[in-house]
Design goal:
With about 300 residues, this protein is mostly helical. About 55% of the residues lie in helices and about 0% in strands. Helix 3 packs antiparallel against helix 7, helix 3 packs antiparallel against helix 11 and helix 3 packs across helix 12.
Length: about 300
């Protein structure tokens, strides 16, 4: 799928709606209760990053790949979720939880997180190699939180807007309140701590047929409108590309999964364009309305440079 020249907004808006699953979803009304702040402040970097649908898709895919690389997390996710049988429903629920954590009113987010923590209490068992796991294990929760923090930031930085030095630290710190509620008590507080955590996982992450099964699901599940299905496969490769090279090697993601230069250029073009398309039904815009902010508050010009 090669697109030359600027993309028109209407087809791109169709793709955005496919990525964010607004059409036909009951969802949550992020515009209420009026005036109530979220867990993460509205002037945060998180609010700007999570509004971008391409960063959500690419970052979310990369985060799950990192989760599945850890054998205890992989077993818990694969044996206690509906990813295989109902992947679209599972993806929508996971994405909705992330958006609620960022944009939902604090009372709504805290209630949702508490419910997830209770559900995790029943998830435990043994990996095929005999390792014990529990979904509420602080170390595993920390890894899951860190993979999401790393992946969403890198997706936005790589394909939407290059971030100034220090923004990775800010992004880590913005998620700490939610991390504590989920039980990720060792969540990295800076880019340095993130690198230290990733380095400590060398030797623990491994390839698995489940990783390739997940990638095939992400390539073939009808997430985007039919005209954009080739783009969906490119976005999967874009997600792999933001993983550290040593993790790509550990997962045995070889040349077949490499993204081509023209595909990188295309994803950057879409990422930048999608960052300026305002959809009133999106959680980001609804959350701004809840706080009495202009609907284009998150779309106003910033001093961050576009990706070239």
């Amino acid at each position: 799928m090669r697109i030359v020249g600027p993309m028109s907004s209407r087809p791109l808006e169709m793709a955005i709606r496919g990525l964010l699953h607004f059409d036909g979803d009951p969802g949550e009304d992020f515009s209420i209760p009026e005036g109530e702040e979220a867990l993460i402040p509205h002037d945060s970097l998180s609010w700007r990053i999570f509004k971008n649908p391409l960063a959500l898709f690419v970052g979310g895919t990369a985060a799950v790949l990192l989760e599945l690389a850890e054998p205890r997390v992989r077993t818990g996710v694969w044996e206690h979720s509906r990813f295989r049988s109902q992947p679209l429903i599972r993806m929508r629920r996971t994405g909705f939880a992330a958006l609620t954590t960022v944009y939902g009113a604090r009372s709504v987010s805290e209630k949702m997180i508490a419910r997830i923590v209770r559900l995790h209490e029943a998830i435990d068992g043994w990996t095929p190699s005999g390792q014990r796991y529990c979904a509420n294990n602080p170390d595993l929760l920390t890894w899951v939180h860190a993979t999401a923090t790393f992946s969403f930031f890198q997706a936005y930085n790589r394909y939407v807007c290059v971030q100034p030095r220090g923004n990775a630290d800010s992004f880590c710190q913005e998620g700490l309140s939610a991390a504590a509620l989920y039980g990720a008590i060792y969540a990295p507080t800076s880019a340095h701590e993130m690198r230290t955590l990733f380095a400590s996982m060398q030797g623990s992450l491994e390839a698995s047929p489940i990783v390739f099964e997940f990638l095939e699901i992400m390539r073939t599940t009808p997430i985007l409108p039919p005209i954009f299905r080739p783009l969906q496969r490119i976005l999967v490769r874009a997600a792999i590309d933001i993983l550290p090279r040593w993790i790509q090697r550990s997962l045995e993601l070889g040349e077949t999964w490499k993204i081509r230069p023209w595909e990188v250029a295309l994803v950057k073009q879409i990422g930048r364009r999608s960052d300026g398309i305002l959809i009133r039904s999106s959680p980001a815009v609804q959350a701004c309305a809840r706080l009495g902010l202009p609907e284009d508050y998150l779309y106003q010009q910033t001093d961050i440079e576009p990706v070239l």
